[in-house]
Structure prediction request, 137 residues.
Amino acid sequence: MKAPDREVLITVADRLPPERLDAMADDPDYLVRTYVARRMPEGRLFRLIRDPDQQERAAVAERLPAVSLGLMADDTEPEVRRIVAARLQPEAAIALLKDLDWTGLYGSRPFGECQSITFSRCCNMSIRSSPKWQENV
Prediction:
């Protein structure tokens, strides 16, 4: 039997009730899993935190309950960590200031250079200045 078409699976992921999406969370197609992550109930997103695909992890970081975002603060992709930093409470986000991808512009003291602007703006400027960010753009 032929494998289901990607567009069919994405349509199914869009139409199934969210509580029935667990069966599709392990689909081999990253895009299907990303659609699942965008609609799956928040309490079930934990199983997707370490997915091999960056897009799915970004979708999880956008929806994961704020109190659980620390579980993704060490993600391998700077974009996922940026989403986490943008959603974390300021007190918790300070721990991300030592992130090597974000300190390229400010050296080892990024927060000291950012006191006159908001914390989230500082993080956005720092990550975009990182050589790794510029390689991926």
Summary: Confidence is low (pLDDT under 50) at residues 105-134. The first helix runs from residue 6 to 15.
